[in-house]
Write a structure and sequence with these properties.
heterodimer, A: 112 residues, 7-stranded mixed β-sheet, 52% strand, B: mainly beta, 12 strands, 50% strand
């Protein structure tokens, strides 16, 4: 059945290490998004991609990087430059524009 | 500038009572508006959305929301709260830019038996 998968669900990393979060969708959506969620702050946009091989920075892109080599995949790398990486990360996709976004189950990253 | 504001980070209601979660947006043109629900450690699930059709929008699980342009509001309501409604609720707006959604800070709903 169609949907968005994120893996792993929980991730622990040592400070200073880069880590890549996976996001895959089989909804044939053109657009994909990465959000960061912190308590009391709602969702903040990190990066988004409207089409393969193209992506734009969101409001809090510093310390993160992405790639969009395939339509169904939009991995997010949290680099050592991200000062406070511990958070809940959510991936979403839609057909573009104002179409409803569909969310994955999220990855909780904890940096020790 | 804040595009969407949710008043009240925590709301408690008794089981069977009316649920009212507030959302106001700031936009000179009517945007697209969404309400999502999130259960602990899960992704967001769409409850309902407004896309410039009927101003009263009905969603899943008995929820509905009314778009009021004069008040720039899109409040979420449910006539009778159920224990399973306890969750975090997010209002979101797409400002007709075609590419970005803005989310409120969320309202945590507690249902008291």
């Amino acid at each position: 059945d169609g949907g968005i998968t994120q893996s792993p669900k929980y991730l622990f990393r040592k400070e200073g290490q880069n880590v890549t979060l996976s996001c895959e969708q089989n909804l044939n959506h053109d657009a994909m998004y990465w959000y960061r969620q912190d308590p009391g702050q709602g969702l903040r946009l990190i990066y988004y991609s409207q089409i393969v091989n193209d992506f734009q920075k969101g409001d809090i892109a510093e310390g993160y990087s992405v790639s969009r080599e395939k339509k169904e995949s939009f991995p997010l790398t949290v680099t050592s430059a991200q000062k406070n990486p511990t958070a809940f990360y959510l991936c979403a996709s839609n057909q573009g524009g104002a179409d409803t976004q569909y969310f994955g189950p999220g990855t909780r990253l904890t940096v020790l | 500038a804040q595009s969407v504001t949710q008043l009240g980070s925590h709301v408690s209601v008794s089981e069977g009572a009316l649920v009212l979660l507030r959302c106001n947006y700031s936009s000179s043109v009517p945007p697209y508006l969404f309400w999502y629900v999130q259960y602990p450690n899960q992704g967001l699930q769409l409850l309902l959305k407004y896309t410039s059709a009927a101003t009263l929008v009905k969603g899943i699980n008995g929820f509905e929301a009314e778009f009021k342009k004069s008040e720039t509001s899109f409040h979420l309501t449910k006539p009778s709260a159920h224990m399973s409604d306890a969750a975090e609720y997010f209002c979101a707006v797409e400002l007709n830019t075609g590419n970005q959604f803005y989310f409120g800070t969320g309202t945590s709903l507690t249902v008291i038996p």
